[in-house]
Write a structure and sequence with these properties.
The chain is of the alpha/beta class and 284 residues long. It has a single domain (38-282), classed as Vaccinia Virus protein VP39 (Rossmann fold). The protein contains 10 helices and 11 strands. The model has no long low-confidence stretch (mean pLDDT 90).
Length: 284
Amino acid sequence: MKCIVCAGNTEVGYSPWHRTCPVCRYESADLKPVINQSRAHGHVDERDREIALKGLRAENFRIIVDRISRLAPPSAARLLDVGSAHGWFLEQAGHRFEVLGIEPDRVVGGRAAARGLPVRLGYFPDVLERDERFDVIVFNDVIEHIPDIGSALDACHARLNPRGLLVLNLPSSRGVFYRLSKLFARFRLHGPFERMWQKDLPSPHVHYFNEANLRTLVGRHGFEEKQGFELASLKAGGLLERLRFTGGAHPALLYAQYIVLRCVIPFLNLLPSDIVVGIYRRKD
């Protein structure tokens, strides 16, 4: 199998479904999304998931909106959030932009729409009108789930106004927790590694990038990087719910993980984060 970044030959990684590129360090997974299948949602406690993620993501989304506002020209008006989920980013960005969300998960997206948020159910770019264009397109924890990422990037270029911004917020293969999960996988402890890839969840990860190979891939599709930065990947609030929302862990192991992570949180700023953000401008 060829690497989507450098076209080199990839190798089998830490599981039969996992592959790595020895040249550019891109990683992929042969995991299939089953977003609207009820059996997949049985692995997820949506209430715990919302409690687990909302605090951290709301804080990170404020930072992202601030960075976008500084880079976008004053005339920038329309922002598209692809994979808008619960609508938290729409709420943050709506203070500065005219926002629209697209969400393929009918349950999650339907709840956001019921709260009055501008969300279309379906897939990007299929649910857009032919002439719809945007000044900013954002993917928050979404682009790593899209198998045909090249087509998605081409669609972004086509749907952005001249000099428009593409924002990718995604997990990093350099992150400390992802690297630890690979270390555990070497010793046949695959649970943390599968968790990082969101295996058996409705929409698993199918890509893992670092800043360099992501910049190369996005650049080939007509964008230049304007800014890159890290975000916090863990905070104490909601941590226990985050550990348990997928279910299946023995309570003793779950609480042991919780105690260990609470102890290391103060030191995480010294280590590579598991979340990176790249802001790219469309080249015309």
